[in-house]
């Protein structure tokens, strides 16, 4: 990558928290950025499923903040109303016993929905949705992007940032840079089966959310316990190991297993209206975090949770730090 004076146009692939953060930081430095996202809207795995009757956060459930720069960003989101602190009554189920959680973590959620934060971060960006980037080619020092829905993107880019999960990055990288493709291939991402259950009445339980250990379910949470939400919608996550081992189950079979587990935990699911979602790449990443990857020789950057310890904060920091590195080139 040559000096920043010659970086006129950057394409960011992926509008999750990492891609949006990277794009905003670059744009704040006066660089022209286009974001391409395969889904219908921004936010990636910080997502909310909405129907006529209910809505539920079905990806990330909350986030924590430890890094000073991330804490500062979170405070600004609290001030503009897109984030709030969530104080759930939290339990832990382990060895067939329920107990109070001892966790002192401060937990944050997007408001009024988890994807509200991504929508806010995307506001001032040039973002194109339902654009799946299927191929990247570098010719005469410029990137040409191909897109499944619209063939070739006419704009040429000096730099491309891949802000997408490792397996999806690997597919785009394999003919471009074998070292980066190998790094992406070595990331271990695991699936997550997610159940959204709408109960016709409030459940008779004395907690808002619970970590479930040593079962096929690992998390259960009443969506209505979070700030600015209502209703008796519960989100239930399968454990990473069980979800990965059973990633190819049909939705019906995955639901049967999870309902059985919930019933054993004391939930009567008979009247519940249930929807299932399979996250193929939900969590995990590189064993040794590298933060982000910058390949100046070919004008390529990679960011995302899988490069930086997983989770929302890791994704934000990865996008933020990649933007800083690109600005300095
Ligand atoms: P993503 O959010 O995955 O964004 C990548 C984007 O790229 C997506 O929008 C995708 O559609 C798009 N994309 C992919 N390929 C292409 C392509 N070829 N062209 C165009 N666009 C493409 N984290 C926490 O901190 N706390 C939690 O409680 C928590 N719970 C979780 C529960 C579940 C079920 C899941 C799935 C995740 C959870 N996480 C949690 C993890 C957290 O959601 C992620 O770490 C974070 O959102 C990742 O952000 P990202 O920008 O790296 O990736």
Please tally the helical runs, counting DSSP H or I stretches of 4 or more residues: 8
> What proportion of the residues is helical, as a percent range?
25-40%
The succession of helices and strands, N to C, reads EHEEEHEEEEHEEEEEHHEEEEHHEEEH
Shape: globular
Largest sheet: 7 strands, mixed
Could you give the distance between the termini? 7 Å
DSSP strand content: 25-35%
From the helix content, strand content and strand pairing, which structural class follows? Answer: alpha/beta
Q: Strand order within the widest sheet?
A: 7-6-15-16-17-14-18
* Bound ligands: flavin-adenine dinucleotide
Radius of gyration: 20 Å
Poorly predicted parts: none
List how many beta strands DSSP finds. 20
Q: On the 0-100 scale, what is the average pLDDT?
A: 95
Could you give a quick summary of the protein structure above?
With 329 residues, this protein is α/β, with parallel strands linked by helices. It is 26% helix and 31% strand.
């Amino acid at each position: 990558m040559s000096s920043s004076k010659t970086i006129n146009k950057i394409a960011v692939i992926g509008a999750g928290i990492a891609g949006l953060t990277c794009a905003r930081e670059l744009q704040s430095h006066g660089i022209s950025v286009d974001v391409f996202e395969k889904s219908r809207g921004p936010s990636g795995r910080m997502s909310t499923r909405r129907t006529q009757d209910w809505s539920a956060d079905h990806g990330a459930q909350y986030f924590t903040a430890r890094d000073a720069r991330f804490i500062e960003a979170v405070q600004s989101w609290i001030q503009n109303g897109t984030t709030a602190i969530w104080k759930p009554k939290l339990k832990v189920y382990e060895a067939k016993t329920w107990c109070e959680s001892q966790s002192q973590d401060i937990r944050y959620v997007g408001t009024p929905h988890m994807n509200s934060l991504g929508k806010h971060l995307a506001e001032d960006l040039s973002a194109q949705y339902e654009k799946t980037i299927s191929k990247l080619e570098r010719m005469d020092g410029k990137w040409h992007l191909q897109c499944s829905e619209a063939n070739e993107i006419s704009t040429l880019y000096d730099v491309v940032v891949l802000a997408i999960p490792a397996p999806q990055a690997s597919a785009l990288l394999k003919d471009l840079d074998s070292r980066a493709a190998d790094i992406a291939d070595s990331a271990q991402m695991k699936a997550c089966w997610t159940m959204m259950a709408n109960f016709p009445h409030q459940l008779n339980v004395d907690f808002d959310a619970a970590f479930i250990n040593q079962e096929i379910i690992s998390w259960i949470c009443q969506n209505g316990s979070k700030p600015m939400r209502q209703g008796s919608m519960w989100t239930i996550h399968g454990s990473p190991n069980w979800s990965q081992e059973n990633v190819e189950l049909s939705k019906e079979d995955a639901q049967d297993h999870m309902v059985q587990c919930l019933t054993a935990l004391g939930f009567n699911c008979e009247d519940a209206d249930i929807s299932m979602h399979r996250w193929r790449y939900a969590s995990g990443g590189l064993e040794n975090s590298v933060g982000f990857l910058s390949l100046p020789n070919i004008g390529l950057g990679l960011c995302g949770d899988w490069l930086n310890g997983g989770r929302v904060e890791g994704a934000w920091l990865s996008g933020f730090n990649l933007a800083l590195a690109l600005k300095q080139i």
